[in-house]
Design goal:
The protein has a domain of 62 residues. Helix 1 packs across helix 2, helix 1 runs antiparallel to helix 4 and helix 2 runs antiparallel to helix 3. It is elongated, with a radius of gyration of 15 Å. The longest helix is centred in the N-terminal third of the chain and has 24 residues. By secondary structure, the protein is mainly α. This is DUF2913 domain-containing protein.
């Protein structure tokens, strides 16, 4: 089972991926889905190369990259990112409060 800290880091990663994808849609010119996914792949490459996230998330970045390349760039991945994020949020439980 994932620790609270690990889950929090993973949620932060997916939150950043969602924000990057939405900002690209919002501020970019209207582009086909393939171009949106190419942007997301570049974002993932940069995140891995620049070590933007904890080392424990490298496998998550690799998994997402591999999934996108295997399933194809015509697929809309934003709903999947949001679903993973929402599921992770539902797993978060408040840290236990210790009463003295």
């Amino acid at each position: 089972m994932m620790s609270h800290e690990q889950l929090s880091q993973r949620l932060h990663f997916y939150y950043c991926a969602i924000v990057a994808a939405l900002m690209n849609e919002r501020y970019g010119f209207p582009v086909p889905q393939v171009a949106k996914n190419q942007f997301l792949l570049r974002w993932l490459d940069n995140a891995q190369r620049n070590k933007s996230f904890q080392a424990e998330l490298i496998n998550e970045i690799r998994w997402l990259r591999r999934k996108m390349l295997t399933d194809g760039l015509a697929h809309d991945y934003l709903p999947m990112l949001k679903m993973i994020y929402r599921h992770g949020q539902s797993m978060m439980t408040p840290a236990p409060v210790v009463l003295l």
